[in-house]
User: What shape does this take?
Amino acid sequence: MSPVDTLAARNVLRSDAGGLKALVTALVMRLIPFGLSVLRRVWPIATVGSLVIVTRYDDVVEVFNTDQAFAVPYHDKLDVITGGQPFFLGMRDTDAYRSSTAALRRVIKPEDLAGLGDRSEARAAELVAASDGAIDVVAMVRTTSFDVMRDYLGVPRPTNGDIEVWATRLFEFQFADSGNDPALRTEVDVIAPAFRSLIQTEIARRQAAGVTGDDVLGRCLTLQAALAPGFGDDEIRTALLCVLVGGPPQPPMVVPQAMEQLLRRPAALAMATAAARSGDDARLAAIVLEAMRFDPLAPGLPRQITQNWTIAAGTPRAKPVKAGSTLLAAFASAMMDPRRLPDPGVFDPDRLPHEYLHFGHGLHECFGRHINGATLHRMLKPLLAKPNLRRASGRSGRLSKRGAFAERLIVAFG
Assistant: This one.
């Protein structure tokens, strides 16, 4: 078995259904950007039954900024994952939300970002060095993302399962299971308690041994010993679990998609390789962020409309929406809106920060956005620095997806 096959041999994604359903799903995914561009021009706040689709930049930002009318729909499934323990991802703007996020910021610190970037680059470099001239970008990024974050958080590998599989299944259940697949739910009902038990066992082991350490769990236990609020066992376990479920599954989705976009644009790829070889991390980060704009994590984020509201009030496109409806804030479309992004079809890594909505906006902006900003480009850096970087021959050299997830992208070098 070649090194590239060895890295990708353990497939953490669920088996594709195959047949007509898989073909239709793939076709729909490819057509979504075109469909959103049409809506953005002719029906910017569209209603399809009880679903409202918001496509323009200003309106998407309004939705993200208006928590009192557009609530996150994550609470019910989050309860399944956490065993009923609350976590801020599922909360409205309350005292509990603010205290929960403040507690997590005490242990996940800005000064950690540089080290996380260094570790991400070093782990990716190890995988590239072992790959013998060809590597699956998806598997490389997944291994890097989970290895770095698991060590940073202080969560051990399970002996009765695979943490990459566990976190990816729970991520799919929470964020990409709009059809409430019963087969996935069966897996989740086994994985979620096992994951909670893994973390709780490690908490108890360290407490009994009097061991803390300078990973996130160690910091939590130090604050627990000092009787700081928000650091009981339940809060610590839930925070670590939710960070692992919401964080490491994202890079193997978006980073290979960015790599695919660079491969489609020789000039952009040349910019990226030059930045990687010169060690210009800031420039490389800007290039990767811009590449992600052409294929972001998802077309949009869901919201539940909790009170009657008029979106884009005072404009010709003003649209009253009713409580009880579901809304899709199409941030992928917003980042292609020529009303707010000059020449959105042009690859331009010098765009302004506010033009990017990759990680949401407002109250429920992704908690890990700064970690992503420090690490995503560093995961690609060792690969981009290699000479003669190119697609592998055949279908394996083009990005394939399985539903919402990047599945495989083989590149060669040297």
Remarks:
- Confidence is low (pLDDT under 50) at residues 1-9.
